[in-house]
């Protein structure tokens, strides 16, 4: 193999190596981005779940005593002044 041919062969191998490294970097960056997006959506879902839990407890704290009072025979006209205090 003459020098010119060897140099071209070496340049082609070097270019192929650079291209493979760039493709690997791009794939890694895409994977990192996908993981970040997935992590953000999981955090968002956790926040919504916690918020719904708080709302469910608050509604339960309001509704349960009213149901108990109604089942004990209290009429709504007795409950209204208590609720508006």
Automatic annotation (TrEMBL):
Coiled-coil intervals, chain numbering: 10-37
Superkingdom classification of source: Bacteria
Listed transmembrane segments: 54-75
Keywords (A to Z) from UniProt: Coiled coil, Membrane, Transmembrane, Transmembrane helix
Protein name: Uncharacterized protein
Species: Microbacterium azadirachtae
């Amino acid at each position: 193999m003459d020098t010119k041919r060897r140099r071209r062969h070496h340049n082609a191998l070097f270019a192929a190596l650079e291209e493979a490294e760039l493709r690997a970097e791009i794939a890694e960056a895409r994977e990192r981005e996908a993981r970040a997006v997935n992590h953000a959506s999981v955090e968002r879902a956790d926040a919504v779940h916690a918020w719904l839990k708080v709302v469910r407890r608050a509604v339960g704290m309001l509704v349960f005593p009213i149901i108990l009072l109604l089942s004990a025979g209290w009429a709504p006209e007795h409950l209204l002044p208590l609720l508006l205090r």
